[in-house]
Amino acid sequence: MRRKRNIESSIGMDEDIAKLTDFEVRVYLFGLAHTDNYARFVGDAEKFKKLVDPYSPHPVEDYEKALQKIAETKLITLYNVAGKKYIQYKKESFDRINAFWIKRRGVPEYPAENEEQIFDLDVFMFQQWGDVWQRTAYAVKTKIVELSLKYEREKFQKAVEYSAERDARNFVYLKAILEGREKEVNHKGFLQRMRDKE
If I label 51, which of 139, 152, 179, 191 is the partner at 20 to 30 A Cα–Cα? Predict the structure, then answer.
């Protein structure tokens, strides 16, 4: 995806930036260009390099060290969600500088540091929905998490299990079950459409 990201002309006078080597500055800026609209990006060094600087002669280990050093300056925050590494660029600076380009943020592409709950269901959902859950887009997973928070856990889990039993593993059918829309849930045509969406 093509993105537009701004940097301020005063970046050369930034005391935190000044603490970085030329390579670390390169890593910082290259990563910034790939952030989602919430200033987040992948934090795994190997994935980071493949996505932002694939032709660099520097080994992955150099990127790992660079990200750690940048994090020490508080320019970014490194964190883990469900065993996966992510980066959060300094939100205040990102929002101020890039407000012109980012009019509509949309759904985040990467989870926030405090969004562990979005993956608390991961094992359960995979057990019930299998590969369908793995293929489910992050935006849809977010909606499913919202459902899990809205309804009692037992009710939610039973609804997920029921959707799996009916071979209709998708958000629309799950929501219909939870909302008690029995006619839709049991309608053969509706059920078949839900199966076709998997």
Answer: 139
Same domain? 66 vs 137: no
- What CATH number is attached to the domain comprising 86? 1.10.10.10
Q: Are residues 17 and 52 in the same domain?
A: yes
Q: For residue 189, with 0-12 CB atoms within 10 Å meaning exposed, 13-18 middle and 19 or more buried, which class applies?
A: exposed
Single out the residue of 49, 5, 6, 2 nearest to residue 27, CA to CA: 49
**Which residue range forms the structural domain that includes residue 187?**
117-196
Q: Are residues 124 and 63 in the same domain?
A: no
DSSP character for 110? S
Question: How many angstroms separate the CA atoms of 45 and 85, rounded?
Answer: 9
Q: What is the pLDDT of residues 186-196, one digit of tens each?
A: 888 888 887 77
Q: What is the DSSP letter of 66?
A: H
The total number of structural domains that make up the chain: 2
d(CA 2, CA 94): 17
Helices 45-52 and 60-72, interaxial angle, to 10°? 100
